[in-house]
Amino acid sequence: MAPRDRKKQPAAINLIAGGTAGLCEALSCHPLDTIKVRMQLATKSADGAKRSGFFRTAMDIVKKESFFGLYKGLGAVITGIVPKMAIRFSSFEAYKGWLANKETGKTSPTGIFFAGLAAGTTEAVLVVNPTDVVKIRLQAQHHSMSDPGDVPKYRNAAHCAYTIVREEGISVLYRGVFLTALRQATNQAVNFTAYTELKEQAARLQPQYTELPAWQHMILGLISGALGPLSNAPIDTIKTRMQREKATSGESAVARVRRISGNLMRKEGFFAFYKGITPRVMRVAPGQAVTFAVYERVSGILEQFPVLSGQQPKVLTSED
To answer: Which of 2, 300, 303, 313 has the most CB atoms around its CB within 10 Å?
Structure first.
C-alpha cells in the first residue's frame, strides 16, 4: 500500500510505535552521538596540533572514561524520546491531513515536505531543545564513569536539569531553540519527503507486497536519514557550541550565533562547521533506519488490536 494512501492512525498507535522506535534508536545509536558532540566541542590546540578524528575520539573516550562514557546523556535522550516520537509522527500525520487534497485525500510531495517541516518545528520546541541542552552538558563532561571517586558536576539527567535551572534559570533549557527548530524542521522535511517518495516508488515496483519487508524499510530509512545531516551540519555545530556555554549577560541569541559562527570561521576555518559530520551521519542515518523499520512493524501489529485502532470488535453470532 502506498504511504499516502495509508489510513490515518490513532494517536495511541503513534505514541506506542513511535516511542518504541525511538527507544530502539537511542539504545543502538547513542554512542555515535556522544562522539559527534565531543568532535564538535573540540577546539584547535595552541600548537596547531591536528584534531582527533572519529575513531581516535571514540578510543579516547573509552580509554579515559570507560565504555559507558559513550552513553553519557542517554538518560536525557530516553526521557524525551517517547513524547518526541509521539509528537513527530502524530503532528506529521495531522499536518499532512490538513495539506491533503480535499477531493482525493492525497498529499503532494510539496505537502509532505511542509508537513515534515512543521512536525520538526513542533517537536523541537516542545521536547527536543530542553533534552538536547541536558544531553550536551552531560556528554561534555570529561570524567570516568568506572571510577566512583571521579565525581562529575552533573550526576544524571534529572540532576543536570535541576542544576541548570537552579544556577542559570529555566530559559537556558531553551537556548538555541531557533537553531534546534531549524535543524529539526529541515531534518524532518527532508526525511519524511524522501522516505515517503522512496516507499511509494518501492511499493509501485513491487505490487506483490501488501506491506514492504522490514529490511526495505530499513534501507529506505537509511537513505532518507542521511540527507538531513548533510543539509544542516553548520546549524547543528553552532547549536552545540551555544548550548554548551553558560549564559552571558546582555548578549542576545542573534549576537551569540554571530559570535560563535564568527569565531569558528576565524579561528578554525570553514570546515569547522562540519565537525562531527561523519558520526552524525553514522548516527542519524542508521537511527532513521531503525526508527522507520520499528515504527512500521510495531504500528502494523498494533493495528490488529481494535481497542487501539478504533475499530469495533467483531461480535460472534451463532452462524460464526
So the answer is: 303
